[in-house]
Design goal:
Blueprint (H helix, E strand, L loop, with lengths): L14 H6 L6 E5 L16 H11 L3 E4 L18 H11 L4 E8 L5 H14 L4 E6 L6 H4 L7 H14 L31 E4 L6 H7 L3 E2 L5 H17 L7 E9 L8 E3 L2 E4 L1 H13 L4 E5 L7 H11 L7
Parallel strand pairs: 1-2, 1-10, 2-3, 3-4, 4-5, 5-6, 6-7, 7-9, 7-10
Antiparallel strand pairs: 8-9
Length: 322
């Protein structure tokens, strides 16, 4: 077990961030689309809005969209197919409490002014419920389609990140690879908290120290719990070494929840086929090593989705932060 974080709260940002991330506690969210589509790269999106509203009513902390511009065959997953910012606008008006996350916007594929404007709009329209994950991108095929270089995405990620940060200021003036705002003009709306919560995904082609210095949290990937514990301990040490307050950690987890509550875990892609008791035990082990949020992915789940959601809510959510 990692040392318990001494502060009683993470540094507050907006309503969504504050509700999802609590020190020494783990909350649960869901990856969108909330459906089974194991045999196809493209989901049906049947009842997609109703299931997100059901997730909110059942008490899940967040739903997570993805940024998948092209259906790349080698990647094998088209995500929710809708543009994440357009979809966020719909969800902002059709939900009231649940945090709206993106895991993650591929910064080198978009101009940061458009990202900043769209994200701040979604944040304001949702009443401060946006959590924005950002990444450098891992699908090389997308870059030539946009006439962009894959090799320099590291530098463009940093430039984009810095540009988005500055857009929270009043009439910012600065020099940047993507452009140099000046002349007293401003970008509106401003995020509800004066800044967007930006969580960096994986390494994003950056030095670990840069990530610790700049992110409002870290999105990492499932690993063996012993290795994950060491990775998180190293992350916490880096954040502390650069003089910042503690920052949250989150990860996804694919699950196939079966009827037998005592069924032991069997590995599947980035997760497990298992019973509810084994899932509870596994999530508690993640909570103990410092994971603050897990986004459950039901792509490979074989049981009826609504039944699974209600079972998770009844038998699992009471054991975790809400």
């Amino acid at each position: 077990m990692l040392k318990q974080l001494e502060n009683t709260t993470f540094q507050p940002i907006n309503r969504g961030y504050n509700s999802v991330f609590q020190p020494n506690r783990l909350s649960l969210g869901l990856v969108v689309p909330i459906e089974t589509y194991a045999r196809s790269a493209v989901p049906t999106l049947t009842h997609h809005l109703e299931r997100i509203q059901l997730a909110e009513a059942l008490g899940f902390a967040a739903v997570w969209l993805r940024d998948v511009p092209f259906n790349v065959p080698s990647f094998g997953d088209a995500g929710q197919t809708y543009d994440p910012f357009v979809y966020l606008g719909l969800l902002a008006g059709q939900t009231k409490q649940i945090a709206l996350g993106v895991a993650s916007i591929i910064l080198p594929l978009r101009h940061p002014a458009h990202v900043a404007k769209a994200a701040a709009s979604a944040d304001v329209l949702s009443g401060g419920r946006l959590i924005l994950g950002v990444a450098s991108g891992d699908r090389p095929e997308e870059y030539p389609a946009l006439n962009l270089s894959y090799g320099d995405r590291s530098a463009r990620f940093r430039e984009s990140f810095g540009y988005i940060r500055r857009m929270g200021e009043a009439t910012p003036a600065f020099e940047n690879h993507y452009g140099s705002p000046r002349g007293g003009m401003d970008m509106l709306p401003k995020p509800t908290a004066g800044k967007l919560p930006l969580l960096i995904t994986g390494g994003s082609q950056q030095a670990p120290e840069w990530i610790a210095q700049n992110g409002d949290g870290w999105m990492t990937y499932p690993r063996n719990p012993v290795l994950q514990a060491q990775v998180i301990q190293d992350w916490q040490a880096r954040v502390e070494s650069v003089g910042r307050p503690a920052q949250p950690v989150m990860q996804p987890l694919y699950i196939d929840l079966i009827d037998d509550p005592d069924a032991p875990p069997q590995p599947i892609h980035l997760g497990f086929r298992l019973g509810i008791n084994a899932l509870r035990t596994y999530l508690k082990s993640l909570e103990a090593i410092g994971v603050n949020h897990v986004a459950l992915n039901l792509r490979f789940n074989q049981t009826n989705v609504e039944t699974t959601l209600k079972r998770l809510a009844d038998e699992l959510l009471p054991d975790f932060a809400t």
